[in-house]
Amino acid sequence: MLWDEGIYVAIPETHAAATLQSIKRDDVRDETFLVTADAAGPEIEDYLVRQLSGPGFRPRISVQHVGRDNLLNMVARGFGITLTTKATLGAVYPGVRFQPIGVSENTVSSSVVWSEENHNPALKFLLEMSFDHARRTVRLAAQRHS
Length: 146
Description:
CATH architecture of the largest domain: 3-Layer(aba) Sandwich
Low-confidence stretches: none
Order of helices and strands: EHEHEHEEEH
Shape: globular
Number of helices: 4
Distance between the termini: 23 Å
CATH class of the largest domain: Alpha Beta
Strand content: 15-25%
């Protein structure tokens, strides 16, 4: 594992929960969740089912065959909400608010796996960037806790 990122809910800026400091699961339980058909979509769908399902209840999940940018545009237009990580917060999506989920253990771990026989220069660069990012993340966390 290289680093952990917090999970955020992407909601329309007109949503009732857009003014909350953080969102609890019950605040969005009855919403329609938009997920992508590929990339992390199936993992997000599994996460939603694990976190929100209960006796006689299963979350409404709408699988979309679009990329992340289009999915966030759908959120802005009120088609539903979605989950994302802190990395998404660096981009601007008009009409979308990103609210943290109130429980601190809601994180996504990032890791890399590669073949030692792969000598592609792009892989070497990716690994260096990933390890540098992981070291910075650990340093920042240590500074916050000291």
